[in-house]
Write a structure and sequence with these properties.
CATH class of the largest domain: Alpha Beta
Order of helices and strands: HEHHEHEHEHEHEHEEHEEHHEEHEEHEH
Helix content: 25-40%
Number of helices: 14
Strand order of the largest sheet: 2-8-7-6-5-3-4
Number of domains: 2
Strand content: 15-25%
Number of strands: 15
Largest sheet: 7 strands, mixed
Radius of gyration: 22 Å
Oligomer: single chain
CATH superfamily of the largest domain: Type I PLP-dependent aspartate aminotransferase-like (Major domain)
Shape: globular
């Protein structure tokens, strides 16, 4: 049994569940649930706007959470952390504020064939509006990005490079630091989708030298509906607001409105105060763990799952990059991924099936989708054994 499992109440209620859909969302430890409960029962008030003691306390907790998030990604200052609903909103915020201000006709934005839809569609829309061109780095058959092709795409026309740190569909870990350096050589701004990286590795935006980094709390043991965007202040200090209303304003007159400094100019309306506090609790929980132990545990699960799946006749692993996060995608030859997933669920094993919001990637690989098993700290060797057994049983049923 995983040494981390007892911290998660769901498994006390459902002790036999094998939950392997962690790339979609993770379960929440007791400390995160306690933080949410404490906010609502002990210091529930709106932030920034009140002079009373309860509002002051809520504001202190809220802004302390921003500081913790800034430290988590090693941002130079907490003002460079903007609260969002998650990675998707973070990418959209960067696209519709900074990018829409700077992109023009004949400019180019570079993404990759590996991207989640939320790092494709915003760039299609912004490019269409600006008359800019969207270019995509080829993905190799093993699930890695073609770095030679990437270099060939970079030019003085490249204004933005937007890349996932880790592929949600295949688990591929991209060489982000090296890719950012190459983008810097042509003065391109870099925007990183960190949704799948933040739960599994240390994030240092200063070391990466990226300009934006978006991630979500719910994929790293925190609550849903909250995330953060690290945004370099020199790029965003004068960027146009994305949404308008309360909080983001400095002064409103009927003739003219002036805006707050970042991050507040990008945080219109009452924020997700409880979510920010819950995200802080999730980071504090992760910080309490032995990083090397967690890494060894998750990589051991990936290794054993991959090895076990390959021993099953007809199973094909999709994505065999040299460096991967704890995600394994696969298919059973001649069977539809959805049928496999349903039969696994009937045996108490929860996995994700489909295109994983990466339809261009699936089209490139020539498949409609995969079965994806993704692992977290509370998964165990027993879970892997049940995963292998459920796939073997599904194969027997589907091929009999």
């Amino acid at each position: 049994m995983s040494p981390f499992r007892d911290a998660f109440p769901l498994f006390r209620k459902r002790p036999n569940d094998v939950y392997l859909d962690n790339a979609a969302t993770t379960q929440k430890p007791e400390s995160v649930l306690d933080a949410l409960r404490t906010y609502y029962t002990e210091h529930n008030a709106n932030v920034h706007r009140g002079v009373h003691a309860l509002s002051t306390l809520a504001t202190e907790e809220f802004e302390r959470s921003r500081q913790v998030v800034a430290e988590f990604v090693n941002a130079p200052k907490p003002e460079e952390v903007i609260w969002t609903r998650g990675t998707t909103e973070g990418i959209n915020l960067a696209a519709w504020t900074y990018a829409s201000d700077v992109l023009g006709p004949d400019d180019e934005v570079v993404i990759s064939e590996l991207e989640h839809h939320s790092n494709i569609v915003p760039w299609q829309m912004v490019c269409d509006r600006a008359g800019a061109r969207l270019r995509a780095i080829r993905v190799l058959p093993n699930g890695e990005l073609d770095q030679d092709h990437y270099e060939s795409l970079l030019s003085p026309r490249t204004r933005i490079v937007a890349i996932a740190h880790v592929s949600n569909a295949l688990g591929t870990v991209n060489p982000i630091k090296e890719m950012v350096a190459k983008a810097r050589d042509v003065d391109a701004v870099t925007i990183i989708d960190g949704a799948q990286a933040a739960p599994h590795m240390s994030i240092d935006v200063r070391d990466l030298d990226c300009d934006f980094y978006a991630f979500s709390a719910h994929k790293m043991y925190g609550p849903t509906g909250i995330g953060a965007l690290y945004a370099r202040e020199s790029l965003m200090a004068e960027a146009s607001p994305w949404q308008s209303g309360g909080e983001m304003i400095e002064e409103v007159r009927l003739e003219r409105t002036t805006y707050q400094k970042m991050p507040y100019r990008f945080e219109a309306g009452t924020p997700n105060i409880a979510g920010a506090i819950g995200m802080r609790a999730a980071i504090e929980y992760m910080d309490s763990l032995d990083t090397e132990q967690v890494y060894a545990h998750e990589m051991g699960l990936l290794r054993d799952a991959t090895s076990g799946l390959l021993q099953i006749e007809g199973v094909e692993i999709v994505g065999e990059a040299a460096e991967k996060a704890p995600v394994v995608s696969f298919n059973i030859k001649g069977s539809h991924h959805s049928d496999v997933g349903v039969l696994m669920d009937n045996q108490g094993v929860a996995v994700r099936t489909g295109h994983h919001c990466a339809m261009p990637l699936m089209a490139k690989l020539g498949i409609p989708g995969t079965v994806r098993a993704s692992f977290a700290i509370y998964n165990s060797s027993e879970d892997i054994e049940k995963l292998i057994a459920s796939v073997e049983k599904a194969r027997e049923i589907l091929t009999s």
